[in-house]
Amino acid sequence: MNTALPVSKHSKLRRLLKPLPASCLLYRHLCTEPNPQPPPLRLQDKESKVAQAIQLLVETPHQEWSSSQPLQSLLFSSPPPSPLFLFKITRSLPSSFHALNFFKHLQQNLSSQDTQFLSYSFQALLEQTGREPDAASRLSELHQASKEWGVPLTVKAAAFLIRYFGRLEMVDKSVLVFNELVPSLRNTHVRNVLIDVLLRDSRFDYAMNVLDEMLQPISEVPPNEITGDIVFNALVKRGRKGRNLSEEDLIKLVLQFGKHSVFPKTNWLTQLISGLCRSGKSNQAWNVLHELLRLRAPLETPPFNAILTGLGRSGDVKRMNTVMAEMKESGIQPDVVTFGILINQLCKLRRVDEAMKVLNKLGEGSGSDGVTVEADVIIYNTLIDGLCKVGRQEEGLQLMERMKSMKGLAPNTVTYNCLIDGFCKAGEIERGKQLFDQMNEEGVSPNVISLNVLVDGMCRHGRISSALQFFSDMRGKGLKGNAVTYTTLITAFCDVDNMGKAVDLFDQMLTSGCFADAVVYYSLISGFCKAGRMDDASNVLSKLKEAGFRPDIVCYNSLVSGFCKKKKVDKAYEIIKEMEEAGMEPDGVTYNTLIAYFCKAGDFAVACRMMKQMIEAGLVPTIATYGALIHAYCINGKFEEAKKLFKDMSSVSKVSPNTIIYNILIESLCKNNDVNFALSLMNDMEAKGVKPNTNTFNAMFKGLKEKNLLEDAFILMDSMIEHACNPDYITMEILTEWLSAVGESKKLKSFVRGCKVSTSTA
């Protein structure tokens, strides 16, 4: 039977609920007879009475309830029933239909002053209705009816309606229920329910308005821990619509709660501190913790670990130590994570000795600081890795042995990988291989990182064949490589122009099920470009695009360079056009490649135009730019243009020439018999602090020999010794032939011994 209460039927309800004759009210519990109050019923007796009432209500048709003396006596006899008694009966009836009829019965039999009794029964009626399928409309009707009947809601009934309407996405209805409550019912519990509903519906501003009243310094409805949990949990959820609190407002909110002795849970506070630190606001994070400490918040270790991590990212070890000192003063015990963070940061800053002191302090057990934390495998691995990264692999080995002696600790795969990597990077490949074998012997399973570390070490030190053989052996033993393994090997073979092997490995990589990333394609393209195999490079470029990758600027520059070397400048321009269409502008490398190409082709007009475009694009010409132009001018006998460009380097472009630029000019000037200007450039090098090399002196000796400027040669021989430039076979060939011919062999012998040969005071 439908028990809904549409608004249109309220008049009918009034007729149904009109007062009964006085004879029917004899059983009202507000009896005026002066009977003494009996002693209160025991809990068992109360429950028995509830069960009796329910049985009578179910077995008796509701039209006959008023005439059932046993029922009336049970419900309304002296002593008067308690509101809880009527609440239990209503809630325990089999359906909302029975509950509604029982509520009507109470209305007929209770005085208009007994609203508390009706309110409790009405609360139970709401709960009954809320469990049934068409609850949404029926709850709305009951809420409206309660206002017409003058039945005030209990706090729990109000909270129930607000929450239930919220779950049904009828949030406006929830707000209406709250606004219609008398102020005394808008307590902390009801506000908590409303705030939760509003936040779940992304009505952030409205929720904050309700919360503001609770957070006032002297509030009649102060927040409690439930308020804090609701608000903080909602705020921490990423992507919630309407969450417009800045980090500063968030901090203010936390401190406002704190003044009411309501503090965020550890996990939420840790997330707040971590977020502030990631945003570069470590100072604000520390101020929050300071203020919470002042408010006597029961803080735990994780938020302090979060701020230590943040300070570690910025390398602020001094403040990390300050934080740890203040933790101690506040009685907050650091844990193994705390010390791990400190040790990790010290190792990253290569301050390994300080990190070892922290470890030794832990090893002392309960020392003067009361530290009882013992180092775990992660801390030992961090220190071993730190020692290896600063080239102290032997100490890393010793630390591993110390680790073995600790109870409950044993080296794992990470431990060995750190050591193997350290020895391989130091060029001690055999030691790395020995450790790899040792970990197998000790039952520590190597993983693909162990494999990759050794393969990379071998490739870096020119042992590519050994790396490939080792990789093949490991595959035979079931340790398969991944994309990193193949990429390392492919890149190594590309670097030594063994493109055939690189392609074979690429094919093997795909057939083995490894995912080829962009780096592999870039390596192959670069290798083919260096080898001048531009058709193959173009094919790999097509495969790269088919795989869903986009070439980067380095890849495009490799192709431009490759096509320029093959004198296919039109193809190079096609690549540049494609690069620009992909949203990438040519960089300095692109321009330098084209400038070098046109310089070699003798097309100086285009080369200079390219350089002008480069500057207009906001790029600064580099040594490579000037070097290509100066070298081309010199080769083509345009020495004046070369000198002018050299002068412009320092005065206009502010690019300081290096040894290579000086060598190009000095060699070209000496070949052109302009030895005096070449000597002046040597003086210019000295003045600007540019160190000459053996090639510089060789070029000068050739020029001086042609002019037979012997004394100047002696001075340069002394200068060569001063600059610690070792003579090579070209130097000795020039000077032996020249000095022997002029009878100065003794000076040549003195020069070879590193003795001064010039008698000039210049």
Automatic annotation (TrEMBL):
<dbReference type="Pfam" id="PF13041">
    <property type="entry name" value="PPR_2"/>
</dbReference>
<feature type="repeat" description="PPR">
    <location>
        <begin position="376"/>
        <end position="406"/>
    </location>
</feature>
<feature type="repeat" description="PPR">
    <location>
        <begin position="622"/>
        <end position="656"/>
    </location>
</feature>
<protein>
    <submittedName>
        <fullName>Pentatricopeptide repeat-containing protein At3g61520, mitochondrial-like</fullName>
    </submittedName>
</protein>
<dbReference type="GO" id="GO:0006396">
    <property type="term" value="P:RNA processing"/>
</dbReference>
<feature type="repeat" description="PPR">
    <location>
        <begin position="658"/>
        <end position="692"/>
    </location>
</feature>
<dbReference type="InterPro" id="IPR051114">
    <property type="entry name" value="Mito_RNA_Proc_CCM1"/>
</dbReference>
<feature type="repeat" description="PPR">
    <location>
        <begin position="587"/>
        <end position="621"/>
    </location>
</feature>
<dbReference type="GO" id="GO:0007005">
    <property type="term" value="P:mitochondrion organization"/>
</dbReference>
<comment type="similarity">
    <text>Belongs to the PPR family. P subfamily.</text>
</comment>
<feature type="repeat" description="PPR">
    <location>
        <begin position="693"/>
        <end position="727"/>
    </location>
</feature>
<dbReference type="InterPro" id="IPR011990">
    <property type="entry name" value="TPR-like_helical_dom_sf"/>
</dbReference>
<dbReference type="GO" id="GO:0005739">
    <property type="term" value="C:mitochondrion"/>
</dbReference>
<feature type="repeat" description="PPR">
    <location>
        <begin position="447"/>
        <end position="481"/>
    </location>
</feature>
<feature type="repeat" description="PPR">
    <location>
        <begin position="482"/>
        <end position="516"/>
    </location>
</feature>
<feature type="repeat" description="PPR">
    <location>
        <begin position="335"/>
        <end position="365"/>
    </location>
</feature>
<feature type="repeat" description="PPR">
    <location>
        <begin position="517"/>
        <end position="551"/>
    </location>
</feature>
<keyword id="KW-0677">Repeat</keyword>
<dbReference type="Pfam" id="PF01535">
    <property type="entry name" value="PPR"/>
</dbReference>
<feature type="repeat" description="PPR">
    <location>
        <begin position="412"/>
        <end position="446"/>
    </location>
</feature>
<dbReference type="Pfam" id="PF12854">
    <property type="entry name" value="PPR_1"/>
</dbReference>
<feature type="repeat" description="PPR">
    <location>
        <begin position="552"/>
        <end position="586"/>
    </location>
</feature>
<feature type="repeat" description="PPR">
    <location>
        <begin position="300"/>
        <end position="334"/>
    </location>
</feature>
<dbReference type="GO" id="GO:0003729">
    <property type="term" value="F:mRNA binding"/>
</dbReference>
<dbReference type="InterPro" id="IPR002885">
    <property type="entry name" value="PPR_rpt"/>
</dbReference>
